[in-house]
TrEMBL record:
GO cellular component: cytosol
UniProt name for this protein: Uncharacterized protein
Entry's Gene Ontology molecular function annotations: S-adenosylmethionine-dependent methyltransferase activity
Amino acid sequence: MYQIKFVKAPICEFIQPVQARRAGVKVPETLLSSLLNPSNTRALNSSFKISTLVMVTNDLGEDFYPGNLDLTAQLFLHYQSSPTDADSDSNEPLYLDTTPLTYEDFQEKSVLFSTSKTPIKWDGKMRETRLEFGVPAHTLVPKLKELEIKLMNYNVKHRLSKKAKSVFDPLQDELFLSLRVLNVPKKTSRFAPPSKLDNAAAGIKGTYAEIRSLFEAENIVAAPEQSTVMELEDTTVLDVVSLPLQITLFQGADVTVLERFVSDKYCVRYLPIGIPPKTSLDESPKDLKLEAKGVVLLEELSNGIARHLWDAGIVVAKSLPKLYHGFPAGSKPDILELGTGIGIVSIALSIVFPNANYYLTDLYDAKEICEFNIGMNYGPRTVRRLAEPILIKFDELDWEATEFPDLPPVWSYIVIADCTYNPTYYDALLSIIIKQVKGDKNTRVILGHKFRDLANDICWFGMLAQQFAVEKEVWVKNGSNVMHLGCWKLRE
């Protein structure tokens, strides 16, 4: 699995006509009022220029996409009211100039403003590629009406208003642009250059076969009827969205100054969850209504370990319903996540399975961004309606510590995703799992693992299998990558 990443935070520049800049003209209007005034040719002839650098790499950032891609850039226009003190949430400690829309709002409260005319080229020799395109400012005007209609329909749909009526004033309210960069695979596209394709395909099959045979030799496999193999497309590339870029210019703007709107050091990921790849909705439990679910996550642009998205986390979030389809009626199990990072797994699971308590744990470095992500998905600005409040919280937990935070005495599930990449921590991880299982044979450990170094990987699973037996499993193949999602229980 590969991810599109911003190398630099995207910049939106508002560029005035050359004649106006040379004349040193002062515009005593906001940008939008200028655009809505047909006689103001200076504003109508202005443009927005979007620029950034992107790369396509694996989750760790050290393996670049080896083939050719035609990336597409899209600009979305949306309205976003400023949060008031009454709307603030204690789980949103990060200071940001702008806050992303929720998953549902991005689908229902934004309109596509513009798409790049030519593809952004990526080839296997690149380490980054420049994205730059311009949009005439006057094209914003018809999109305002489209946005207004969409917002009116949104309010009616969610019963925020009994009838469609205007819900924002473009001259007063804040308008934003969000940049999305995505890959639209062509039917003829290839993951690797043609000369390498045959060898790559043979390597993929051999790698999976070798891992599976080693697992079978060590008796680390589930019963055949409890084992599933899932295959992702070779060209699976995760798209990325910028933080919202505010495009409103305040009164007295000087057109001799190039206005620049820069997003922050974070990017946004919008992820549909619950339906495993290549699995239709009909194959999932009907009462889950998985087609309407999704999460929004903030991720740091740097390659810090704790503050970005990992492949196995995505797989666990999307595929857990294949292992387990719900909790017994009337129960509210306690679920512990170790090494939560930005919180994708527990946040996703809490949306699919809300009748549980979720305790997300990691080192202090992950606390700020994880709590922010919890707030974005469960804060007061979301339209998600719950029958009863859900408990989902972050606790700092060091695996090697001797004292632990105040946590429930018994866990129904312990969830771990992509925490097994470093053999230095194998002993500490296994130790904390055993301590938290506490000998309870009803506790299940759900582990998502991406194979990165076969010798270390087999060492880890050998250690785990001495204490636990795999009950159910899903093997995930994605190009040359292999991942394993298993549900483990204490050995008898």
